[in-house]
Automatic annotation (TrEMBL):
Xref: Pfam families: SoxG (PF04268)
Gene3D superfamilies per record: Heterotetrameric sarcosine oxidase (3.30.70.1520), Probable tRNA modification gtpase trme, domain 1 (3.30.1360.120)
InterPro entries on file: SoxG (IPR007375), TrmE/GcvT-like (IPR027266)
Name this polypeptide is given: Sarcosine oxidase subunit gamma
Amino acid sequence: MTVETPARFSPLSGWQDRFAQLPTGLRVRELPFLTQLTLRVEPGSAAAKAVEDCLGIILPGPLRAGSPGDVEVLWTGPDEWLLVAPDGRQDDLLARLRSAIGDDFATVTDVSAQRTTLALSGPLVRTVLAQGCALDLDPRVTPAGSCLTTLLAQAPVTLVVREEEPSGVRLLVRSSFASYLATWLLDACTEYRSDTGGRGWDGR
């Protein structure tokens, strides 16, 4: 008997056409179903060293992100990091990390279903985000490699400035806030569109 795998739907499935309405200075796309693991470990401990050897990277310090190959490591607290990898890597990474940690004190938890990711690029990225974020997003203050947990339009997000894309930002947002945040981004861009006549993205 054949068992069908249930179809997966991302929090922003069907939004491609609306994202296509954005001005040319801002491009937004969803990166759905990324592997996301929360790592809790004491910095400098034997367990932390084991994790670093396993991943091939020094765990980044406060407000920073690092990327060994296809795994991105985001600092999210004094003893907490978020590991982000392509879809389908959960089991492999969990097994490798738990094997490396052994009986040392640390935890690794799969939280992939909690959030989706928005990839933003273009010259308007920081200008648009500044409308809803209290942080100083000037590149001199928030350079590439920065990782910040903040509020964007009152929605909690993890904001990552990409090393390989100086004008690019990734927003990790909880699934329940994704539609709200996407709508806010569209409205925040209204003044930069030439075809709206001052109206919102939905014509109002």
